[in-house]
Amino acid sequence: MENSAKLVIRDLCKSFGDHEVLKGVSLEAHAGDVISIIGSSGSGKSTFLRCINFLEQPSQGSIQLNGEQLETTLDKNGDLKATNPKQLQKMRTQLMMVFQHFNLWSHMTVLENIIEGPIHV
């Protein structure tokens, strides 16, 4: 049976030195899903989201978007890095993120606020 998930995260891990922040986190998101990630301050919520977009490099795991597996390899520090910059850029155009302290415009729709957000990191 084919997996209809739009986003599949498998066994995502992230460490900062000896401190393990993400320990094998997995997630499947299907079209129409609403997903909340909750936890106390410092529990890894933002790190998880940043790893999905490769704003932080995960230590291990896999990311699949719309059926396409992100191609990765290990860098010299033992973290994952995307091997195909064009594929990563394409993936980033399909995954949107609005940061917690980003100022939203009350006169704009949600989509207009997202479009207004930073394009480059």
From TrEMBL:
Compartment(s) where it occurs, according to its Swiss-Prot or TrEMBL record: Cell inner membrane
Keywords carried by this UniProt record: ATP-binding, Nucleotide-binding, Transport
Main location: membrane
Membrane topology (UniProt): Peripheral membrane protein
MF GO annotations: ATP binding; ATP hydrolysis activity
ABC transporter domain sequence ranges: 22-113
GO cellular component: plasma membrane
Domain of life according to the entry: Bacteria
InterPro entries tied to this protein: ABC_transporter-like_ATP-bd (IPR003439), MetN_ABC_transporter-like (IPR050086), P-loop_NTPase (IPR027417)
Statement: the UniProt record of this protein carries the keyword ATP-binding: yes
Pfam families, per the entry: ABC_tran
Protein name, entry field: Histidine/lysine/arginine/ornithine ABC transporter ATP-binding protein
Record organism: Acinetobacter johnsonii
